[in-house]
Amino acid sequence: MDESISKPVNVTPQQQELIAFRVGRQEFCIDVMKVREIRCWAVATVLPRAPRYVRGVINLRGAVLPIVDLAARLGLPGSEPTARNVIIVVQIAQQQIGLLVDAVSDILTADEKSIQPAPDVASELVRSFVKGLLPVDGRMISLISLDLVLPTELQEAA
Amino acid sequence: MDPMAAIRETFFQECEEQLGELEAGLLLMENGTAEAETVNAVFRAVHSIKGGAGIFALDALVRFAHVFETALDRVRSGQMEASPPVLNLLLRAADVLADLVRAAREGGVADAAHVASLVVEFNQINSGAKPPAPAPIPTPVQQWEIIFTPRPELYAKANETALLLRELQRLGEMRVVLNASRLPELAELEPEGAYLTWCITLEADCTAQAVRAVFEFVEDDCELEITQALPAEPALVPGSIITGDNGFSFEFFPPVEAEEEPAPEPEPARVVQKPPTQEVAAAAREEARTATIRVDLDRVDRMIDLVGELVINEAMLSQRVLEAGLARASGVAMALEELEHLTREIQDSVMAIRAQPVRSVFQRMPRLVREVAAQTGKQVRLVTEGEGTEVDKTVIERIADPLNHMIRNAIDHGLESPEKRLAAGKPAEGQVKLAAMHRSGRIVLEVSDDGGGINRARVKQKAIENGVIGPDAQLSDDEIDNLIFLPGFSTASTISDISGRGVGMDVVRQSVAALGGRISIASKPGLGSTFTLSLPLTLAVLDGMVVAACGHILIIPLGTIVETLKPKAADVFPLDNGINVLRLRGGYVPMVDVAVALGYSERRIDPEQSVALLVEGEGGLRAVLLVDAIHGQRQVVIKSLEANYRAVPGIAAATVMGDGRVALILDVDAVLRNNRNETARAEPARAELTLQEAI
Domain check: are B523 and B568 in the same one? Predict the structure, then answer.
């Protein structure tokens, strides 16, 4: 295993704990500090006239939690969620939002230095969401920015 | 929050209460219905604010409160008459004091020039009538009889009678005799009760005020009687002991330090028998002052949230039990039923914590009425009714503005000038009545005036000028009256400061609608108008009809539903562009397919296969909503969609159902408005007709 990326032991200020998850055939990760909880998929109540990637809302212990289908948001092929899907509840500013992903795969501790900048490609997806790339055990995990994962209208409303 | 900030916050909360009492007291004085106690209460309010402000070094506040207090003290002591100009100044000073408190609380700055000008006025009246020698004239030694009976609250507030008596002793020679006749048997003794009365004879060269001042901070929590003993009074036998009728006898021993001074010769004390009526009055006062605690609103809200959770959980449990196939008569089901009752009761009790009488809002109105009356040159008497009606705090906070507007409107537009009134054979003074009452689970507020009523010809003409209605529109009186709720409608021919800004009743209607309320008007030419506001008692729960539209569960607020019906194909008429209307008792009401309106479905359901709900939205806008089925009726806890998402058009809020799923609450007004706009786009010529029908 790469020296700079390991399972969390003692996290130094330069290091970042990340949670990795799968969406389709790709792996992504986000800052673990943003994650409030991880729960299994529950059928969401569809919101009228919502963007396609907003699956609807679910009840999270009394709070109404919107669910963003990350596959749809990132423009990846997705499928109807099943009980095997996972919702990562993240905190963004004052709001909590559920991210629908296929599965949580790993928890990593990454050195700032080991995060490589996203290559300058013409892809809208890469430009909008990918902050950096992490090589882990021969896999490639994209570090995504949550602020941009949010639908823009949501940010305006926030 | 750090402790100091918390104490500071408490101080400001108390200031709010004191300011309320101050205002109420001053208004009583103005009406001439003040009792002797009123002026004391007013004085105490200012005094307490000054005291608290001193602790927090709020100098500007202390300085002003001091000047204010000085004037009040002179009124209290009878040195200055509470004449109308003085009262006017005092009322204005109360406003400034409130401004200063607010400035201190929010860290802002009050209008310094205004404050200074009032201080000057105060100095004028304070010095004007002041006797040339402000130093107290040495008063001859007088004998004071003081009967001091603490109430339990006095002890509860950590006051010490011994300290008070010691303080009193500083004034002069004193004898104290304890009357313990009210002391019950030990078995009946309330540990925190108050049973003792002290009869104090004080020989001092001071005034009654000086004696009273010793008890200043406990005055509310005790019975205090201060009388000047007549010299001719027969002396009591030294060393007399007051004996209670239950056989106990006590003698008061002065506190240790006090004993260093030459022990006063025990002197005769009179047992003053208080007339029974006074006792009754005291008991009544006691009752009015029920024990209260101050609780952070957040905590109550948290509790309401939790109880909401409990209600949902309880419903989920019931469903699981049903699913498990347990018999209705089984022990589990019965215990569950009890749980349900308990849960409802807890919910009601928690909601009751937030309920407050509308008095706090009503109290602000007399000032407004006076201001507007002065501005318009009209004579107005405000009558309030049902101040004790309780409603949720959130509602209270948000009805002040609409009420303000309505009262302004009633005076400015409703009431005629004194000359016109006299000419019409009415008293010159107009009356505006503000009433609150509970009616079928809602609170109803009425603002009525005995003015000229709505000038329908003028309203209609204005509506035609503004293009709201066609020139040849035939409207009923009711429809014309309701035109004033339309946006940008104001009949005032000149824009006045008071209400004619063209925002008037439209804004009122909107803010009322935002509260889930409705507003209506009834007007009689020459006799006046009555505006009726109907609001939910709380904004946290809602009674709703659970319906299904295209497989989605929705809640329709019960308050908007007029009736449910099963439409017949023969009553459905296509109007235009796929818009259908339903014939209903001779009238035609537009039909709205809920699933289509929300974008759940493209295809309209067959009206015959659906259930129709006749709903009425703001401004009396009516439509028939079509849904697949009605699943029942229930009370739901309102959950915000905006907290984690954003406002969704057509949806007012969300709630959590018994199965733990989120259901959406339909925003009936938005759906109706939207429908109207779509109709307008589809067929401009028809828009007017729709509007007219709707109004």
Answer: no
Say yes or no: B620 and B668 in one domain: yes
Q: A–B: how many Cβ contacts below 8 A? A: 79
The partner residue sitting opposite B644, judged by closest CB among A42, A44, A63, is A63
- Verify that B107 and B207 share a domain, yes or no: no
| CATH number for the domain harbouring residue B615 | 2.40.50.180
Q: Does B606 touch chain A (CB under 8 A)?
A: no
Nearest CA in chain A to B660: A59
Q: The domain that contains B64 carries what CATH number?
A: 1.20.120.160
pLDDT digits 0-9 by tens, B273-312: 444 444 444 554 454 556 778 888 788 878 877 887 787 7
Q: What range does the domain containing B61 cover?
A: 3-128
pLDDT exceeds 60 at position B534: yes
Q: Establish if B619 belongs to a structural domain.
A: yes
Please indicate, yes or no, whether residues B504 and B565 belong to a single structural domain of this protein: no
Chain B nearest C-alpha distance from A63 (Å): 7
Residue B436 covered by a domain: yes
Looking up residue B449, the CATH number of its domain turns out to be 3.30.565.10
Residue B90: both structure tokens together: 């005092």
Domain end call among B255, B285, B318: B255
Pair B193, B49 in one domain:
no
- The pTM of the full predicted model, rounded to 2 decimals, is 0.53
Nearest to B101 by CA among B44, B61, B48: B61
Question: Mean pLDDT across the stretch B60-77?
Answer: 85
Instruction: From residue A14, give the alpha-carbon distance in Å to each of A10, A19, A24, B182.
Output: 11, 17, 31, 76
Residue A1 confidence (pLDDT):
46
Amino acid B267: pLDDT: 44
Q: Would you give the DSSP letter of residue B143?
A: E
Q: Which tens digit of pLDDT belongs to each residue from A110-153? A: 888 888 888 777 777 777 788 888 888 888 899 888 876 665 55
- A49 and B642 within 8 Å at the Cβ level: the answer is no
- Based on the domain organization, do B577 and B682 belong to the same domain? yes
Asked whether residue B561 is assigned to any structural domain, the reply reads: yes
Of A45, A49, A95, the CB nearest to B662: A45
User: B638 and B560: one domain?
Assistant: yes
B367 and B485 in a single domain? The answer is yes
Q: How far is A125 from chain B (nearest CA, A)?
A: 23
Which residues on A lie below 8 Å from B642 (Cβ)? Answer: 157
| Closest approach of A25 to chain B, Cα-based (Å) | 29
Nearest to B646 among A59, A61, A154 (CB): A154
Helices (H), B357-503: 359-362, 365-376, 393-409, 418-423, 456-465, 477-482
In A, minimum Cα distance to B653 occurs at A64
The rounded distance, in Å, linking the Cα atoms of B500 and A34 is: 52
Contacts 24+ apart (CB under 8 A), B19-25: B19/B45, B19/B49, B19/B94, B19/B97, B19/B98, B19/B101, B20/B360, B20/B363, B21/B45, B22/B46, B22/B94, B22/B97, B23/B91, B23/B94, B23/B363, B23/B367, B24/B363
Number of domains in chain B: 5
Q: Per the CB < 8 Å rule, is A47 touching B664?
A: yes
Among B356, B379, B399, residue at a domain's last position? B356
Substitution target in B662, B666, B671 with the highest count of A β-carbons within 10 Å is: B662
B273 in a domain, yes or no? no
Q: What CATH number does residue B162 fall under? A: 3.30.70
Which chain A residue has its CA at the smallest distance from B596's CA?
A48
What would the DSSP string read from start to end of B223-269?
A: EEEEEEPPTTPPPPPTT--EE-TTS-EE-----TGGGGSPPPPP---
